[in-house]
Amino acid sequence: MTTSPKTAIVLGTGLGQLASEITESYEFSYRDIPNFPISTVEGHSGKLIFGKLGGKDIMAMQGRFHYYEGYDMKQVTFPVRVMHELGIKTLFVSNAAGGMNPSFKIGDLMIITDHINFFPEHPLHGKNFPTGPRFPDMHEAYDKALVNLADEIAAQKHIDVKHGTYVGVQGPTFETPSEYRMYHILGGDAVGMSTVPEVIVARHSGIKVFGISVITDLGGFDVPVRVSHEEVQQAANAAQPNMTEIFREIIKRS
């Protein structure tokens, strides 16, 4: 079977079920791919899948790599470099995130319109890759045309979506109440431990990006809320059908 995907999807914590929607699929374990790191986080299967979604050839990462796992940024973003070499033009990213916007509730889908990078290491640190300029522009990290299309699809499908800025942090601790409040004051609507490095490298490589955060917990409000990884996975699982519907329709129509 031959495939020529132009679209790739990165499935975050608890969001791997979208893989079951991929038809005519075949997959590779990360362990069998030269130079690929191994995902060590529960809820990340560690498979690279090729097949069809929305009638289009795609590739999907069922599980990603995180800085907090001990990988450096070159390792975390290596799959995006591979995507570029395979001819990927559009990257869909998903993640589970803590909501800081008072209008958010658990289970909301937040279309990412911008991000704030709080990682201690930059993914473009070091010698410049020839896929892009030394100082890449990031004024439109998340493609506005795809955001508009997602809004149109969500309205047609009666799916409630939010918009917001994603704050990327190192982890692996969840945020303190004061940290949640600080990130919100600085302009963030949701916070998580992934996505930003991948998006930076994708944009450096000329790949368009669309992203969704599933709000799996809330923080920074008057009443502190305890959160566990298991609860995050459960909330992400519940929100998957709507996220999958949006991804599928965007791929089908674009």
UniProtKB/TrEMBL annotation:
An individual GO BP term: nucleoside metabolic process
EC number(s) from the headed UniProt entry: 2.4.2.1
CDD domains noted in UniProt: PNP-EcPNPII_like (cd09009)
Record keywords, A-Z: Glycosyltransferase, Phosphoprotein, Transferase
Top-rank taxon, per record: Bacteria
Cellular component terms (Gene Ontology): cytoplasm
Boundaries of every Nucleoside phosphorylase domain copy: 7-252
Pathways involved: Purine metabolism; purine nucleoside salvage
GO molecular function: purine-nucleoside phosphorylase activity
Similarity comment text for this entry: Belongs to the PNP/MTAP phosphorylase family.
NCBIfam families for the chain: PNPH, PNPH-PUNA-XAPA, PRK08202.1
Name of protein: Purine nucleoside phosphorylase 1
Origin species: Prevotella amnii DNF00058
